[in-house]
Write a structure and sequence with these properties.
The chain is α/β, with parallel strands linked by helices. The protein contains 6 helices and 9 strands. The strands form 2 sheets. A 7-stranded mixed beta sheet has the order 3-2-1-4-5-6-7, with helices on both faces. The protein has a two-stranded antiparallel sheet with strand order 8-9. The chain starts with 6 loop residues before the first strand and ends with a strand. The site of glycinamide ribonucleotide has 14 residues, from helix 1, strand 5 and helix 6.
Length: 210
């Protein structure tokens, strides 16, 4: 929290935006002591932008540039400028399918969180629910973590487990993981907004532990 200003969140997403909806609704209900100031997407048609506009939250598409898995320099600058002019305290990645690099990470060091659909460090990367099914694990889940230069590798804020059922398809398992995500992510973002967690080396320390 900066002075009397409410804690301000900037959300980045590429897809349907169900995690954004869970977080925005938790802010509106007072469960997260923060406001979503801006939503940015690298995908023009992403539903996350519509969900934001329906909630009267500023929403912008920013073209990602010439790369497939990361932002190019101009795009990175445009994302950063938008977040800075919205005076964002925390960047929340909600299904943002590009890797953030150098200048972006430095600008918001320890102030970017992500949700990943597995119990990290298991199954980083894409379609983690399929990886879980392929490995035959009996339990998977989701992880909220601070973002660093590694892929799905930063300090872990929280995790929630989800059972894998014999009859699961990739779709049914991902749907069950998403139910858990919508509980876990608002809880973790609330803890960050309240200043209850801090990064210490590779770990997240909760205030009570310090
Ligand atoms: C979520 O399941 C999230 O964990 C995943 O994308 C989905 C976005 O859903 N993110 C990743 O796989 C990042 N590596 P949403 O658009 O409905 O929030």
């Amino acid at each position: 929290m900066t002075g009397q200003q409410p804690f301000r969140i900037g959300v980045l997403g590429s897809g349907k935006g169900s995690n954004f909806v869970a977080i925005a609704d938790a802010c509106a209900a007072g469960k997260i002591p923060a406001a979503v100031a801006i939503v940015l997407s690298d995908v023009d048609s992403a539903c996350i932008l519509e969900h934001a506009r329906a909630r009267q939250i500023e929403a912008r598409y920013i073209p990602p540039g010439r790369f497939r898995t990361k932002l190019d320099e101009d795009a990175e600058r445009a994302f950063l400028e938008a977040l800075r002019s919205a005076q964002v305290d925390l960047v929340v990645l909600a299904g943002f399918m590009r890797v953030l690099k150098g200048e972006f990470l430095r600008a918001f060091e320890n102030h970017i969180v992500n949700i990943h659909p597995s119990l990290l460090p298991s199954f980083p990367g894409l379609e983690s629910w399929k990886q879980a099914l392929d490995h035959g694990v009996k339990v998977t889940g989701c992880t909220v973590h601070f973002v660093d230069a590694g892929i799905d590798a930063g300090p872990i804020v929280g995790q929630q487990t989800v059972p894998v059922l014999d009859a699961d398809t990739p779709e049914t398992l991902h749907a069950r993981i998403q139910v858990a995500e919508h509980e876990l992510y608002p809880r973790c973002v609330a803890a960050v907004a309240r200043g209850e967690v801090a990064v210490s080396g590779r770990r997240v320390v909760w205030k009570a532990e310090r």
